[in-house]
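Researcher: We are triaging several targets before committing to wet-lab work. For this one, the compound of interest is zinc ion. I'm pasting the protein sequence and the ligand SMILES. What I need is the predicted three-dimensional arrangement of the protein with the ligand bound, expressed as structure tokens, so it can go straight into our comparison scripts without reformatting.
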Amino acid sequence: MKIMTNKNRCVICEGTIFQFLFSHHHGWSVQKCKTCEMVQVMPRPSAMEVSALYANDDRHFDPYREQIAVHRAYFHTKIAEIVASWQSDAVLHRKRRRLLDVGCAMGVLLEEAKKSGFIAEGIDMSKASVKTCVKKGFRVVHGSLTTLSLNKKYDVVTAFEVIEHELNPRKMMESIHTHLSAGGVVIVTTPGHESWYRKLMGRQWVGYTHPEHLNFFDEETLKHLMHEVGFHNVFVKKDIARPFPLSFAFRRASDYFPAFRFVLEPLSIIAKHFDIQNPINPWGCIEVIAVK
Ligand SMILES: [Zn+2]
């Protein structure tokens, strides 16, 4: 008898029956679980294959660094959203609230959280990220919550565009649940697989462009995972677009679609002369806020 390993089981419900959708990077397959409808790379690659994708991540944060002010404005809004979402008196009346940002990148969210009075800490797989945040004076751990226990409790855990990268997203959410204090709040964002951008662009959708993306959530599958892990007051919605200048959006689009560079690059140069924000979020990101 062939024994099924976790490598062949749905990352959310452990189902074993899948519908093949298409062949992804490295010949990996994107498949949809017939039981819970989660779209995922299946069979799962090994941890070594995944970490090889991050081997040369030095330049990974370059576009991010360039648009720090945009990310700052976005995270400022998100922190205000978290503060407005307290539902537990236990947390509400706590003097210094602790926040953990999973995948804290350049530490912009940590800075915004600190300004709002949080004790802000982070965890990131990237050594470059840890170095930057530590230099800014934050306590940041190198690694992943799926393999590390921080032996601490937090009032808020945030994970912006991280869960689609996780080899084991269920374990990540279970670990976040463990690290939250009772009544604590979690906020997670990820590209939305049911967005009309994906439907319009099909295989060319930006959410599929990165080989590091292994999980493709929609509002239903994200909500399902949160309930499975034990969260309550689960609220899913479409995320706001980060207010990038239009010129930057055209330039990034030309990185994603080199075949159209001949038209996108001139548009980027023209757009530099106008102070216009790009109103669309082609990732169609969705956001979940929930309570432990
Ligand atoms: Zn499933």
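Researcher: Any quick observations?
Model: The chain has two domains: 1-44, 58-291.
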